[in-house]
Design goal:
The complex is a heterodimer of chains A (about 270) and B (about 290). Chain A has about 270 residues and is mainly alpha-helical. Chain A has helices at about 15-20, 20-40, 40-60, 65-70, 75-85, 105-130, 130-145, 155-185, 195-200, 200-225, 245-265, and strands spanning about 90-95, 100. In chain A, a hairpin with a 2-residue loop joins strand 1 (about 90-95) and strand 2. Chain B has eleven helices and ten strands. Chain B folds into two domains: about 40-65 and about 75-235, Rossmann fold (3-Layer(aba) Sandwich); about 250-285, no CATH class. Chain B is of the alpha/beta class and about 290 residues long. The chains are: A mainly alpha (about 270), B alpha/beta (about 290). The interface of A and B includes residues 133, 172 and 218 of A.
C-alpha cells in the first residue's frame, strides 16, 4: 500500500560502508564519477568494475537491489548503444539496407554502455548505503565553506529534510483526494494519454492547495519550537571523522592514482 | 511571582475583505478585550465554538501572533519584546492540532531533538533530554521509527515529547485531540495530566467538555470575550448559558439537570460521576 513506501532507495544495514562518514561517501562518489570519465580503455573499466565489486561485497547490499537501480535507465542505455552503433564511421562490419555497423561504432557503443552502467551503479551505491538524513547532514557540512559566496547550506539541507519527511504525507493526501474524486465519479483509468493528463488537474489543484496549507502549519510549528535558521544551532548526532573514514579516503586516493597512471601509461 | 501568563486588555484584530468596494477592508476583533492571569502549575481549559477566538488567544501567548493592543506577559517578558522572543517560546511551548503538520524529521528521535537543537544545547545534553521526554510520553521504544508509520495518538505524543524536550514551564495545547480516535485521545489526555502533575502549567484548548472537566479551571470564550471563568463545577452548572453559546455540557451535568427537572433533589453543582454516584447512594440509604 501507499503507506509502506520506503524513502529513497536506502537498504538498511550495518556494514562498514554504511557506517562511513556521509561526507567521505559523497566525495568518493563524486570522485568515482570523475574517474569514470578519465578512463579511456576497457582495461580501466575492468579496474573500476573490480573496485565496485569490492565495495558492493563490503556493503552487503544484495545484487538485485543494485540491479533494480539500473532498470529505469535501461532504455537510455539501449538508446545510447544503438545511436553509437550506427552513427560512427569506419571499417564496415555489417551492412543492412541503409544501416551500417562499423568496427569503431561497435567499440564506441559498448564503451558508452559500460560507462553508463558503471556510473549508475556507483552513484546508486551512495543512496543505497546512506540514510537520507545522514545524506542531507553530509551535504550541509560539505556546502558550509561555500556559505561565503552565498550558498544557503543550512536552508538547503533543512528543505531536503522536510521534503523527505513529507513524501509519505503528500502521497497519503493524493490518495485521499483521488478517492474523494472517484467517489464523485471521476475516472482516472480510461482514455488516451491526453485525456488522462487532463483528469489529473482535479487532483493536482487540491493537492497544491493542501501542500501550501501544510507548509503554513509547519512553519508555525517550527517557529513555536524556536527555529531561527542555522545560527547557533547544535546537532544531536554530529558527524565524526573516524579511523575507518581516513582509511576509506586513503583507498579512494590510491584508486585515483591507479586510474590516472593507467590513462597516462597505457 | 506565581503567575506565568498575564494578559491585560488584549485585543487582536485582523482585516478581511468586506466584499463591498466602498468600505474596502474591515477590521474584525478576533479577541476583544481579554484579561487573564494563569497561575504557575495550574491546569486551565479554554472552551469555545469555532471562531470564538480561543486558538488566536493561544497563539498570542507564545508570540506567534502579537497583540493589536493590550499586553501579554509570559514569565515577566512582554511578547512584543523581540530580544526575548526565544525565551518566551521556550517558556511557553505549543502543541498543535494536526500531528502530521508539526513533525519535522523522518526519524522520531531527530524530531524530538529539533527544539533543543534550535536552542543550541550541547549534543550530550540533547541526547539525554530526548531520552527523558520520549520516556515521559511512553514512546521510548519508537525512537528510531519513521513517524508516518505511527498512529495519530502516537504522533501527537511525539509532538508533545518535542515540546517537553525544550523544558518549558508552560505548554499550550491547541485542540490536541481533535483529529484523534477515542483511544489516541485517551492516551494524549493521560500524558497531559501526567505533565501537569509533574509541575508543568497546562493550557488546554478544546471543544470536548469531558476533557475540560479534568482541568482545575475552565474558561468559556465566545465572540472574542471571556464569558465564564471558574472551577469546572461552577462553570458547568450554568447549563443554560452554555447552551445559548451552542456548547454542550458534559453528560453528568445534563443528567443532573434532567433529574432535577423530574423533581429529584440533587445539588446543581454536581459535575463528576463520583459525586453523583455518592449522592444517589446516600439518598437511597436514607430511604
Amino acid at each position: 500500500m501507499l503507506r509502506d513506501i520506503t524513502l529513497g532507495q536506502y537498504y538498511s544495514g550495518e556494514s562498514w560502508i554504511h557506517r562511513l562518514d556521509p561526507r567521505v561517501k559523497i566525495i568518493a562518489t563524486l570522485l568515482f564519477i570523475v574517474e569514470i570519465f578519465i578512463i579511456n580503455s576497457f582495461e580501466g573499466f575492468a579496474t573500476a568494475f573490480g573496485a565496485l565489486i569490492i565495495v558492493i561485497a563490503a556493503s552487503k547490499v544484495p545484487l538485485r537491489f543494485i540491479m533494480r537501480g539500473l532498470k529505469p535507465i535501461f532504455l537510455i542505455i539501449l538508446f545510447t548503444f544503438i545511436v553509437n552503433l550506427f552513427i560512427v564511421d569506419g571499417e564496415i562490419l555489417v551492412k543492412i539496407w541503409i544501416f551500417t555497423i562499423t568496427k569503431e561504432g561497435l567499440y564506441r557503443a559498448v564503451f558508452m554502455a559500460v560507462r553508463l552502467i558503471l556510473l549508475i551503479i556507483g552513484s546508486s551505491l551512495l543512496t543505497l548505503c546512506t540514510k537520507p538524513m545522514s545524506l542531507t547532514d553530509g551535504l550541509e557540512s560539505l556546502m558550509k565553506p561555500f556559505k561565503i559566496i552565498g550558498v544557503p547550506a543550512h536552508e538547503l539541507a533543512m528543505m531536503m529534510t522536510i521534503a523527505l519527511r513529507f513524501i509519505p504525507t503528500l502521497i497519503e493526501e493524493t490518495d485521499k483526494i483521488m478517492k474523494a474524486q472517484q467517489a464523485r465519479g471521476a475516472d482516472f483509468e480510461t482514455g488516451n494519454i491526453f485525456r488522462r493528463a487532463k483528469h489529473l488537474i482535479p487532483i493536482l489543484v487540491p493537492l497544491f492547495i493542501s501542500a501550501f496549507r501544510i507548509a503554513q502549519d509547519m512553519a508555525m510549528a517550527m517557529e513555536a519550537r524556536c527555529y531561527h535558521g542555522g545560527d547557533n544551532r547544535t546537532k544531536m548526532n554530529g558527524m565524526k571523522f573516524a579511523k575507518r573514514d581516513a582509511f576509506a579516503a586513503l583507498l579512494m586516493l590510491l584508486f585515483l592514482a591507479v586510474i590516472i597512471l593507467g590513462r597516462v601509461f597505457l | 511571582m506565581n503567575s506565568i501568563v498575564e494578559i491585560n486588555n488584549l485585543i487582536f484584530s485582523y482585516s478581511r475583505e468586506s466584499g463591498d468596494e466602498t468600505t474596502g477592508c474591515i477590521f474584525q476583533n478576533a479577541i476583544d478585550g481579554v484579561d487573564l492571569t494563569i497561575k504557575k502549575g495550574s491546569f486551565t481549559a479554554i472552551i469555545g465554538r469555532n471562531g470564538s477566538g480561543k486558538s488566536t488567544l493561544a497563539k498570542n501567548i507564545n508570540a506567534l501572533l502579537l497583540p493589536s493592543s493590550g499586553v501579554v506577559y509570559v514569565n515577566g517578558y512582554d511578547t512584543r519584546d523581540q530580544d526575548h522572543l526565544w525565551d518566551i517560546r521556550q517558556t511557553a511551548g505549543m502543541v498543535f492540532q494536526n500531528p502530521d503538520n508539526q513533525i519535522v524529521s523522518s526519524i522520531v528521535e531527530e524530531d524530538v531533538a529539533f527544539g533543543p537543537e534550535n536552542l543550541g544545547i550541547s549534543p550530550s545534553e540533547i541526547r539525554k533530554r530526548v531520552e527523558d521526554s520520549l520516556g515521559a510520553v511512553n514512546m521510548g521504544d519508537y525512537r528510531k521509527k519513521p513517524p508516518h508509520l505511527l498512529s495519530g495518538g502516537q504522533k501527537q505524543r511525539i509532538a508533545i515529547a518535542g515540546v517537553v524536550a525544550m523544558k518549558p514551564q508552560c505548554i499550550i495545547f491547541d485542540e490536541p485531540t481533535a483529529m484523534l480516535d477515542p483511544k489516541g485521545r485517551g492516551e494524549v489526555m493521560e500524558i497531559i495530566r501526567e505533565l501537569n502533575r509533574e509541575g508543568i502549567t497546562v493550557v488546554l484548548i478544546t471543544h470536548f467538555m469531558e476533557e475540560a472537566a479534568l482541568a482545575d479551571r475552565v474558561i468559556i470564550m465566545d465572540e472574542g470575550k471571556i464569558k465564564l471563568d471558574g472551577s469546572p463545577s461552577s462553570v458547568f452548572a450554568k447549563r443554560d448559558e452554555l447552551k445559548s453559546m451552542s456548547l454542550d455540557v458534559p453528560f453528568i451535568v445534563e443528567l443532573v439537570h434532567r433529574l432535577r427537572q423530574k423533581g429529584v433533589d440533587i445539588p446543581e453543582n454536581t459535575v463528576s460521576r463520583k459525586d453523583l454516584v455518592e449522592y444517589i447512594c446516600r439518598s437511597v440509604h436514607r430511604k
